[in-house]
Amino acid sequence: MAVEQRNVEPGTDVLIRKVDSHLAAVRVGLHGPDLELAERLARCLRELVVSTAHASAADRGQVRAAVHYFVLRRESRGRLLSVRSLAAAERVVHRVARQLGRADLLVESAPAHPDRAPSGVRAADASPTVAR
C-alpha cells in the first residue's frame, strides 16, 4: 500500500476543513449574491492558507485569524451567518490579503446589497445630504 506524502504544514488541512465545513453549513441558508460572496471568501481563504503554509508565524497567524473570523458566527443570532457578519468577514479577509501582498485574491462583493456603498465609500457617507 502506497502512502501519499504531502508537503503541508500542520494545521493547514485543519484550517481548510474549517472553511469548507462552514461553507457547507452556510450553503443551506444563503442564496444569490450572499452565497456567491461566501464562496469567493472561502476560495480566497483556502488560497491564503496554502500560500502561507511555509511563511512566517506572523503571516500564518493573520490567515488563521481571518479563517476563524469567517467561521465564527459572532454577529449571528441563529445557526447561519447574517449578511452583516459576512460583510465583516469580507473586510477582514481583504485586510489580511492586502497585508500579505495578495491583492490578486481580493473578493468583490455583489452590488445587490442596498446597505453597501461603492468600494472606498462608507454607507453613511454615501447617503445624500439634505440641506435645511
Helix content: 55-70%
The secondary-structure element order is HHHHH
Uncertain runs: 1-6, 112-132
* Class of secondary structure makeup: mainly alpha
What does the largest sheet look like?
none
Total count of strands: 0
Share of β-strand residues? under 5%
Q: How far apart are the termini?
A: 80 Å
Outline type: globular
pLDDT average, as an integer? 76
Can you count the helices? 5
Describe the structure in your own words:
- This protein is mostly helical.
- Helix content is 56%, strand content 0%.
- It has five helices and no strands.
- The protein has helices spanning 12-29, 32-51, 57-71, 83-99, 123-126.
Layout of helices and strands:
Elements: H1 12-29, H2 32-51, H3 57-71, H4 83-99, H5 123-126
Helix pairs in contact: 1-2, 1-3, 2-3, 2-4, 3-4
Describe this structure in a few short sentences.
The chain is mostly helical and 132 residues long. The protein has helices spanning 12-29, 32-51, 57-71, 83-99, 123-126. The chain has five helices and no strands.
Features:
disordered C terminus; mainly alpha; disordered N terminus; 132 residues
